[in-house]
Amino acid sequence: MRFPFSLTRTMATYLMKKKLAGERKFPLVLMLEPLHACNLTCTGCGRIREYVSTIKDKLTVEECLASVDECGAPVVSICGGEPMIYPQIEELTAKILERGKHIYLCTNGMFIRKKLAGFKPTSRFFFNVHLDGMEKSHDLAVEREGVFQEAVDGIKAAKEAGFLVCSNTTIYKETDMNEIAVLLAYLTELGVDGFMMSPAYGYAAVQSTNPDGAGQIFMTRDDIHAKFREAKSILRRFKLNTSPVYMEFLRGERELKCAAWANPTRNVKGWKGPCYLITDKHYKTHQELVQLTDWDKLGRGNDPRCENCMVHCGFEPAAVLGVNRRLGDTLKMALWQLG
């Protein structure tokens, strides 16, 4: 199966309950950012630039858990910043798992070996390691030599200890998709359990604070279509955790309406609105974020900031929820999950 049976069962039950209750906007994945500090300064990252004034601030474990409870999403993506440098990351992870949630711990991989003993393997926990290419390309993207090898060593240690591991790759304008195929083949040999990927487009938080390096690496919508059409045959042989409906969207074979409300972000300033990449306001509660955001004014054709956005945190939920559903999509998604 594409995902552990426990995750598939939890998500299917959750979706059924929400739809039977007649709810239209509900969360699938909570993007939990307990801190924004990081040991790297990646060129394409907007967090360390957007939140420079609060870079030393942290949510308490209690605040994190309250956000998990308030949101109610079945999956929690712990991100940042680099969450592995959050002082109570082991405690936080354990207490979220106690609530029956599924966790993707998003990390650059440099601290996996050091902190591995503080975690326990379970079908509800993934280390999600960010890798944007093979060694030379990845180390260039994160602006430090040795990061790729440390991440690989962390993956090996995690797999040997019985953990689930997936990778997350950002595709930039200059990304060589043949190199990505080499990367995925290598990670497959290491036993990595699945691969996520998302295209990079320019957005205010990174472009306004890093104008020299940022504008040259991001893609327009047409660039994204061309890049993923080129890679269609290359990627089909790998165990992508990126759904086939979302991949069709990336290749320009269909349209999807953004469902950013399904992936709410909670960080040190509050509930980030309207979405993971755009910040207009931070709300005090998740309910305020959902109710006070005018979702109809967002998206392509409505807000120029959304014109080239095709990132997974907005459009993958749309694929899963059946937004812009086509005949045969349900069967397609079911066969993909079983693959």
What does this structure look like?
- The chain is an alpha/beta fold.
- It has one domain (25-231, 260-296): TIM Barrel (Alpha-Beta Barrel).
- 40% of the residues lie in helices and 14% in strands.
- It has helices spanning 5-20, 47-50, 61-71, 89-98, 112-115, 135-142, 147-160, 177-189, 204-207, 211-214, 221-230, 232-235, 244-250, 286-292, 312-321, 329-338; strands at residues 29-32, 75-78, 102-107, 125-130, 164-171, 194-199, 265-267, 270-274, 279-283.
- The chain has a nine-stranded mixed sheet.
- The longest helix is centred in the first third of the chain and has 16 residues, at 5-20.
Question: Could you tell me the mean pLDDT?
Answer: 91
Query: Using DSSP, what is the number of strands?
Result: 9
How much helix, percentage-wise, in residues?
A: 40-55%
Classified by CATH, the class is: Alpha Beta
Please give the count of helices. 16
Question: What radius of gyration results from the CA coordinates?
Answer: 19 Å
Percent in strands: 5-15%
CATH architecture: Alpha-Beta Barrel
Largest sheet: 9 strands, mixed
Shape: globular
The total number of structural domains is: 1
Layout of helices and strands, plus pairs?
Layout: H1 5-20, E1 29-32, H2 47-50, H3 61-71, E2 75-78, H4 89-98, E3 102-107, H5 112-115, E4 125-130, H6 135-142, H7 147-160, E5 164-171, H8 177-189, E6 194-199, H9 204-207, H10 211-214, H11 221-230, H12 232-235, H13 244-250, E7 265-267, E8 270-274, E9 279-283, H14 286-292, H15 312-321, H16 329-338
Parallel strand pairs: 1-2, 1-7, 2-3, 3-4, 4-5, 5-6
Antiparallel strand pairs: 7-8, 8-9
Helix pairs in contact: 3-4
